[in-house]
Amino acid sequence: xxxxxxxxxxxxxxxxxxxxxxxxxxxxxxxxxxxxxxxxxxxxxxxxxxxxxxxxxxxxxxxxxxxxxxxxxxxxxxxxxxxxxxxxxxxxxxxxxxxxxxxxxxxxxxxxxxxxxxxxxxxxxxxxxxxxxxxxxxxxxxxxxxxxxxxxxxxxxxxxxxxxxxxxxxxxxxxxxxxxxxxxxxxxxxxxxxxxxxxxxxxxxxxxxxxxxxxxxxxxxxxxxxxxxxxxxxxxxxxxxxxxxxxxxxxxxxxxxxxxxxxxxxxxxxxxxxxxxxxxxxxxxxxxxxxxxxxxxxxxxxxxxxxxxxxxxxxxxxxxxxxxxxxxxxxxxxxxxxxxxxxxxxxxxxxxxxxxxxxxxxxxxxxxxxxxxxxxxxxxxxxxxxxxxxxxxxxxxxxxxxxxxxxxxxxxxxxxxxxxxxxxxxxxxxxxxxxxxxxxxxxxxxxxxxxxxxxxxxxxxxxxxxxxxxxxxxxxxxxxxxxxxxxxxxxxxxxxxxxxxxxxxxxxxxxxxxxxxxxxxxxxxxxxxxxxxxxxxxxxxxxxxxxxxxxxxxxxxxxxxxxxxxxxxxxxxxxxxxxxxxxxxxxxxxxxxxxxxxxxxxxxxxx
Length: 607
Ligand SMILES: [Zn+2]
Ligand SMILES: [Zn+2]
Fold this sequence. Notes:
- With 607 residues, the chain is an alpha+beta fold.
- It folds into 3 domains: 3-97 and 287-505, Zn peptidases (Aminopeptidase); 99-285, Glucose Oxidase, domain 1; 523-606, PDZ domain (Pdz3 Domain, Roll).
- It binds zinc ion (2 copies).
């Protein structure tokens, strides 16, 4: 049992004795108790940041603002100087998320009756939907699945041109579970390629059980770029669907039973005579600054070097209640994703590092700029904003040290240190610093990773990325503070502190270098994935010029849904698919582009 677990259990025990009073949610944020990086302070900070009161720290929600305020308050207490343009701590920026606008309308016209269903109560537009309005008759198209392998086609003999297509979530039940054909994305592309006017999806009986009928939230990306669908796309309650089916004297449940399961499944599609829908989808995009980075600086001791800065960074945001970016499936949507490892751990470490350096008797020679980023989970947005609007000149930024998921060290899996190929001598510097600590390290030369160091590397700044690895709780409601390994996190913190000191105290700065293209023979696609795309596919953020994906015609905005035989629903599966392949392999990569699925053949490169 690790120290962390023991401490967590002790605190749970205390909570059990004290009962569920208001104390936990109202607990003030912890200040550091020791100037050194300590396991206790690290854990107290990470636990508060991942507590229910912060609701998963989604960038544009109050929890992320509380987290960023905590970071600023701590830095002020420690004597750092505020480093933002207005002389304050915060660097605000805008996250371009769709937001429900006034005017959404779903009018159910069945027989003689017309009724407006209430948005957010009985139906939701889906984020991928374009804004727009259609009025059209309704066609029930089963599960909206056409599967030649199974000899099953909900669209056989059905004309849906110009119609509103109503389909059931998932697939006819089958042994072995669901396939890619069950995804929202695929249903949308099947309907759009048949020239449907709009698509409505309703929960299947397995999802709507125990009196519950969870409505897909309008902010859910469902693996698609918001606004990228070509036809209006909405999610409706079982009651709304039943109202549309009433003129045919049937219900969704009855039709599911009629279709049946396994090899006996037979489509039961039909045009619902007497039913039509008027659907208006209205999304607007945020224009105001709705997220913020935190910036604090410890001015260097050496007048000749203090204009140069070492950036130490970590993102404080996470995926909130999992409406986007959850790796735990639809059942977890609406639940708080605490993000204790991702990235309360890195934020806690950032605070411990600032404390240790601020309280140290000998100040670093160069300045150390601490940055706590927001918007990371939505696509490295905070760090990208920073490098486009730097608070200290990028030319004088000698290195960027990033901590993202540093709380789950397991000696069997090593501490991964990325970016060691981005400057001459950088790996040797880390190796020398790590020698006293007894940690098992593995090195990756690349500067591109699904975290904020990427933004700095793309500006040709040497980077380091400290990371204790992906785990089963990644991006789920189970990424909780009791699972953190605080004892080893403190050791990692001491190492990062030494590395930061060395970078800031050495006479000369390390020269940037492009990492070697081929070092370990690992297969690579040559894309930067968007980290906020863990639901139903991986959105391509950017494509390396001349790389394998670029040569095959993959474009930014494409959603990768499969690589070879591996269905890709998130970053983890993308990594697994690449780990299973070799450089030089030719693989079929399925991508969704503008609502339609395409296959491209990619010859994998190496990294
Ligand atoms: Zn992270
Ligand atoms: Zn994350």
